[in-house]
Amino acid sequence: MENSFIPLQIDFNKNKALVKRYSIKWTPTVVILDQDGEEHHRFVGYLPPEDFIAQIILGKGKAEFDLDHFEQAMQCFQEILVRFPKTEGAPEAQYYLGVAKYKVSHDPKELKLGLGVLQRDYPNSEWTKKAQVYSLIPG
Amino acid sequence: MAKQIQWETSLTTTKGRAKKEKKLILMDFYNNL
Which of A6, A33, A41 to mutate against chain B (most B CBs within 10 Å)? Predict the structure, then answer.
C-alpha cells in the first residue's frame, strides 16, 4: 500500500473545512484522492480486512481509470478478481475491467464479454444489472 | 510484526508529497468517540 498511497488521517471533529469540502457525514469514511485532491472512490464504515484491502485497490483502479491510465487500472481490477473474488468490491472491479478493456481496444464486444462474466460469477450484483444493457451489443 | 502506518495530518502537505512521489492519497476521516 505504501508504494501507491500516502495515508492521511483527518479528525472529524477538528477539521470542519475538509469535512465540509468532502461532504463527510459519518466515520470512518475513507476517500481515495489523486495528487490534486480530486476524489475517485470512497467507502464508509468498518470492513473486514479482505474487503478493506479490496476497496483500497478498487479505489486505486478507479483513480487510474479516471486519469486515463487504463493498463494500470486493469491491473488493479484483475488483482481484486484474483485475490478477493468474494468481496463486495469484486463485481464492481469486473464491471470496470470490461469498460477499461473497451477503452483500450474500442471493441464493444469487451463490454458484452464483461457482462457474461458478471452474469456467471455475480448474478445478483447491482453491477450485473448496470451492465445488462450490453447484452444488446451484436456479436 | 506489522509495520506502523505513518499518517499525515495535512492535506496540503500530503498533496505536495503525492505529487513528488507520484502517489495517490488515502484519506481516512476518523472520530474519537
Answer: A6
